[in-house]
Write a structure and sequence with these properties.
The complex is a heterodimer of chains A (about 350) and B (about 190). By secondary structure, chain A is of the alpha+beta class. Chain A has 5 helices and 13 strands. A 6-stranded antiparallel barrel of chain A has the order 1-2-5-4-3-13. In chain A, strands 7-8-9-12-11-10 form a 6-stranded antiparallel beta barrel. In chain A, a hairpin with a 6-residue loop joins strand 7 and strand 8. Chain A is rod-shaped and about 125 Å long. Helices cover about 70% and strands about 0% of the residues of chain B. Chain B has 8 helices and no strands. Chain B folds into 2 domains: about 100 residues, Rna Polymerase Sigma Factor, Chain: A (Orthogonal Bundle); about 70 residues, Arc Repressor Mutant, subunit A, CATH 1.10.10. Chain B has about 190 residues and is mainly α. The termini of chain B are far apart. In chain B, helix 3 crosses helix 4, helix 6 crosses helix 8 and helix 7 packs across helix 8. The chains are: A alpha+beta (about 350), B mainly alpha (about 190). At the A-B interface, helix 1 and helix 2 of A face helix 2, helix 3, helix 5, helix 6 and helix 8 of B. Chain A: Keywords: Membrane, Transmembrane, Transmembrane helix. Chain A: GO terms for molecular function: serine-type endopeptidase activity. Chain A: This is Peptidase S1 and S6 chymotrypsin/Hap. Chain A: InterPro entries: Peptidase_S1_PA (IPR009003), Peptidase_S1C (IPR001940).
Chain lengths: ~350, ~190
């Protein structure tokens, strides 16, 4: 142990001395260097190695960044290709869809022109230039009223005009954006007189394909009758909320009732497909029920909303059905801020 | 590139053998051959010429001590090895100066083990410097004369005015024992 330590300390001392000696030797050699020629040679390194060196350095310094960038680039590329293909696949329908939106725009513009006709006749309608019009009908004789949400959304004020020309102010009780339904109340306008019980009832069951259907609406100032048949149990692009109906409707028909042969309301007209003739859509009555259920009770302000269950149109011929219904279908006029 | 100003151009092996045998001429040739590389590396990575000198001499100390201990395993060109060691040493310096980016100009090999050894030897060296400091005179000079300046016992006897060489030897032995205590009390912790 003792001798081991002795050897160790001697070795350490020798190494220590050796390093001092070596360093002195180095210092001596360095002192004898021609620094000028060393610098020159160092400059040659620059010329020779900087080019590949710079690339390598760049790589080593930025490889993490580069990896991230490359991943992002890859993702973006494939993402774009994927999205583009998706777009191509759905392109046809996309176009129809956007046209469908424009269709709603068309309601506005066509009804703006309509406004020119009526300006002289109705004091209320002459005030505001920005407006939209559609159709709606009574849910109950005491003033509950249904129309399409896209007609009354962002409205400043809503008026409904009966087939006889009586105008009432309406309040939005509930709007269901998801199913494009809006429930209004007319009774707050003191001029509104409750009508006899509504002649039609509401049928939430799924209707059969081929069912003969008809509608009443206000694509223009006069009430217009249209008839057709139920062509599909689903709506635009497989939308289960709506039916597809082969019926001729126009801007302004939105919110109108869709009735079957016996006079049951099976849907509410909402939109049409512009690329095909006679392809219209109506929100199923079942979703009207759902919308009614979701109305908070205080929105009703104590007026119960009970749908008519007794259908008095069943055995009537069509002309009589229409005649009985006319006074329950209203034109909806909406005033908005001009955007 | 490997132009050397005059003299025979030695291979890596010849350089290493010459270095181990302590040849002044070989060391000079080695020094001159690769200093420009390190000079360029350090000065193009925010160092001065003095920094380059310090780094390069440290690199050569590493190489020299590895060679003399027979523990050098060279798996690449000597140039690459020297560059790699210098690079690591300079990186460490830069880290102490809070800089981290360097521009490489040469290929790099892993020299971690070599530098761990080197740091251990640095610790020993610093500890020895410190121990000799604390040992005081005349012991320090006596030991330095014998072990680092390689004076003979006769020279030392005369220099320190001992009556005879045996006396000097006894004195040296006592000094060595004291140094041993100082050194190992720290080193073995």
């Amino acid at each position: 142990m003792e001798t081991n330590d002795d050897q160790d300390i001697e070795r350490a001392l020798l190494a220590y001395g050796e390093r001092i000696r070596f360093r002195q030797q180095l210092a001596q050699i360095h002192a004898g260097l021609n620094m000028e020629s060393m610098r020159e040679e160092a400059g040659l390194y620059r010329d020779e190695t900087v080019q590949p060196g710079r690339i390598r350095t760049f790589w080593q310094t930025y490889r993490t960044t580069l990896a991230v960038a490359a991943s992002v680039a890859l993702l973006t590329t494939f993402g774009t290709i994927f999205l583009y293909r998706q777009y191509q696949q759905s392109h046809q329908q996309q176009q129809q869809y956007s046209l469908l939106r424009r269709d709603i725009q068309a309601i506005k513009s066509s009804q703006k022109q309509l406004l020119n006709d009526i300006t002289g006749r109705s004091r209320a309608l002459s005030v505001n230039p920005g407006q939209v019009a559609g159709t709606g009908f009574l849910l109950t004789a005491d003033g509950y009223f249904i129309t399409s949400n896209h007609i009354v959304q962002e409205a400043d004020s809503i008026y409904v005009q009966s087939q006889k020309g009586e105008v009432y102010k309406a309040r939005v009780v509930h709007s269901d954006k998801e199913h494009d339904l809006a429930i209004l109340q007319l009774r707050e306008d003191s001029a509104f007189q409750p009508l006899p019980t509504v002649p039609y009832s509401f049928d939430g069951r799924s209707s059969e394909l081929g069912e003969r259907v008809f509608t009443l609406g206000y694509p223009r100032e006069e009430i217009v009758y249209g008839e057709g048949y139920l062509s599909s149990g689903t709506g635009y692009r497989g939308d289960t909320v709506a039916y597809q109906v082969a019926i001729s409707v126009n801007p302004g028909n939105s919110g109108g009732p869709l009735l079957d042969e016996r006079g049951n309301v099976i849907g509410i007209i909402s939109a049409k497909q512009t690329t095909s003739e006679g392809v219209s859509f109506a929100v199923k009555t079942n979703y009207l029920f759902k919308a009614l259920e979701s109305i908070p009770s205080d929105s009703l302000k104590g007026i119960p909303l009970n749908l008519n269950r007794k259908n008095t149109l069943v055995h009537l011929p069509r002309k009589q059905q229409i005649k009985r219904m006319q006074s329950y279908v209203y034109q909806v006029k909406v005033f908005k801020h001009e955007k | 590139m490997r132009r050397s100003s005059g003299g025979v151009l030695l291979t890596d092996d010849e350089l290493l053998i010459g270095l181990a045998s302590g040849s002044d001429a070989v060391l000079t040739q080695l020094y001159r051959r690769y200093f420009p590389m390190v000079l360029h590396f350090v000065t193009s990575n925010s160092g001065s010429e003095d920094d380059a000198k310090d780094i390069y001499q440290e690199v050569l100390v590493v190489l020299y001590e590895k060679v003399t201990h027979g523990s050098l395993e060279l798996n690449c060109q000597l140039k690459t090895y020297l560059y790699s060691v210098g690079r690591r040493l300079w990186l460490k310096q830069l880290a102490q100066r809070n800089r981290h980016f360097i521009n490489d100009t040469e290929a790099v090999v892993a020299v971690d083990d070599d530098l761990t050894d080197h740091e251990e030897r640095n610790r020993q060296f610093d500890l020895m410097t410190d121990s000799l400091e604390r040992l005081g005179e005349p012991c320090r000079t006596l030991l330095e004369d014998f072990y680092t300046r390689h004076l003979s016992m006769q020279d030392i006897t005369e220099k320190f005015g001992y009556t005879n060489a045996d006396n000097a030897k006894t004195q040296k032995y006592k000094c060595l024992q004291r140094l041993k205590r100082l050194f190992f009390s720290e080193y073995k912790q």
